[in-house]
């Protein structure tokens, strides 16, 4: 299992939100590059980055920050927020971003997702499924749909998607533990057909252990690292054990 330490960017700053609410924005680090390098020093190979301004505006906003991290560190950058077209995906991949996350468009424009997988390959595309009470939310979590998160995952698998990030919005930024029930239900429903990354609520090593025991592909850690409830190096060393 891989660990993806997270940096969310709003107005050029490294921030975290509480349950995705933009009014709860909290600055958590002063320098994005320094923060990314500290993740690398702890043994991380990946970084998960979100353009919060982009998510809200539906277009890329803080592009230089992500390309800086891709160019000036050896981290593989997984990036989401405001990616709504094949052109944007193409630009980001050419700039050195390793994987792009498609969120709202998976529900609103599934053809874009299937076109992206066909054009760029399934290794480059991640579908982010964000849910409130098991129902998919879109547009920076400002709207909730009547589509169940597992149904959306299965539809996306049918068009060739192999990577998913599942976020329980009610857990995000709360340090209250991952939603084991929903993650397990998703893992069971997609068994052998999808690589699932847990997001939202990670608090301590217990969450990392639970995710690894579920056989998940990865876990995203944000506030837990910044608040010191999770030691990134320890988490990475644990997930690297028993690798075949």
Q: Any overview of this molecule?
A:
The chain has 244 residues and is α/β, with parallel strands linked by helices. It has one domain: Alpha-Beta Barrel (TIM Barrel). Helix content is 38%, strand content 30%. It is built from eleven helices and twelve strands. It has an eight-stranded parallel β-barrel with strand order 1-4-5-6-7-10-11-12, surrounded by eight helices. Strand 11, helix 9 and strand 12 form a beta-alpha-beta unit. It is globular and about 40 Å long. The protein starts with a strand and ends in a 5-residue tail after the last helix. The relative contact order is 0.15.
Shape: globular
Assembly level: single chain
CATH superfamily: Aldolase class I
| CATH architecture descriptor | Alpha-Beta Barrel
Measured distance between first and last alpha carbons: 11 Å
Order of helices and strands: EEEHEHHEHEHHEEEHEHEHEHH
Largest sheet: 8 strands, parallel, barrel
Strand order of the largest sheet: 1-4-5-6-7-10-11-12
Rg calc = 16 Å
The top-level CATH class is Alpha Beta
How many DSSP H or I helices?
Answer: 11
Mean pLDDT: 93
Structural domains: how many: 1
Class of secondary structure makeup: alpha/beta
Contiguous uncertain segments of 5+ residues: none
Number of strands: 12
Strand content of the residues, in percent?
25-35%
What is the fold-level CATH name, i.e. the topology? TIM Barrel
Helix content: 25-40%
């Amino acid at each position: 299992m891989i660990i993806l330490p997270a940096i969310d960017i709003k107005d050029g700053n490294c921030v975290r939100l509480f349950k995705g609410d933009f009014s709860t924005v909290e600055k958590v680090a002063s320098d994005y590059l320094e923060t990314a390098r500290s993740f690398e020093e702890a043994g991380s190979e990946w970084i998960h980055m979100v353009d919060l301004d982009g998510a809200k505006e539906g277009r890329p906003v803080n592009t230089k920050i992500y390309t800086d991290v891709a160019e000036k560190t050896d981290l593989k950058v997984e990036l989401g927020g405001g990616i709504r077209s094949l052109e944007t995906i193409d630009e980001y991949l050419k700039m050195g971003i390793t994987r792009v996350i498609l969120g709202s468009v998976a529900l609103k424009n599934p053809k874009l997702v299937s076109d992206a997988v066909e054009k760029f390959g399934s290794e480059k595309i991640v579908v982010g499924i964000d849910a409130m009470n098991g129902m998919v939310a879109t547009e920076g979590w400002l709207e909730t749909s009547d589509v169940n998160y597992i149904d959306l995952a299965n539809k996306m698998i049918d068009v060739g998607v192999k990577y998913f990030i599942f976020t329980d919005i009610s857990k995000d930024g709360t340090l209250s533990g991952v939603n084991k029930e929903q993650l397990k239900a998703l893992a069971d429903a997609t068994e052998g057909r999808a690589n699932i990354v847990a997001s939202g609520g990670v608090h301590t090593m217990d969450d990392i252990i639970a995710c690894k025991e579920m056989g998940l592909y990865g876990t995203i850690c944000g506030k837990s690292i910044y608040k010191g409830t999770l030691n990134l190096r320890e988490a990475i060393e644990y997930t690297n054990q028993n690798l075949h």
